[in-house]
Amino acid sequence: MTWRDYHGVTLPYSTADGPHSTGGDLASGFARTPSGALLAAVHVAVRANAQWGPKVFEPTITKQVIGPDAPTLLAATRQLYDKRRGKLHDGAALGRAYVVLEGFRWQGYSPDTASLDLVSAGPGDSDMTVRAVTRIQLQWQNDDWRVIAPPGGTWGGAAASIASADGYIRFPNGGGRS
């Protein structure tokens, strides 16, 4: 596994498990393996975020997020982007992200479905590190992993604050940090 910068977030890549396509800031082509599901969860969840602008989050959510709350996720992400973009040209990214992927824990895996908790960390108030765990569920569909939209159509509905990443499988090199 190698790690590469994606606008401030260091993401994992595997020649065997994916993503095999990363054109246009999108990521697809994941193996039907536990590692492929993990990589899909990371890449799709990161890209389905207002931070990167509609050129990234719209096709990511439209093509790679499924389930009854997918339209709500797309609408909420558009609304958040419009609120945060200020005077940026429509479609521009909101800037770099300051988050590190620290680890994960499997909730379940089969060749057709997967569920995991993903731990991320970022800056908080007073130079404190803030950690969150986000539940991500996936389904194998049309020869690739698809993320099932979070409950209520917001990532906040699938996330909770945690004090540490203890008890989770740590990513090598602390999520790609050297």
UniProtKB/TrEMBL annotation:
Superkingdom of this protein's organism: Bacteria
Domain DUF8175 as annotated: residue spans: 1-169
InterPro entries, A to Z: DUF8175 (IPR058488)
Protein name per the record: DUF8175 domain-containing protein
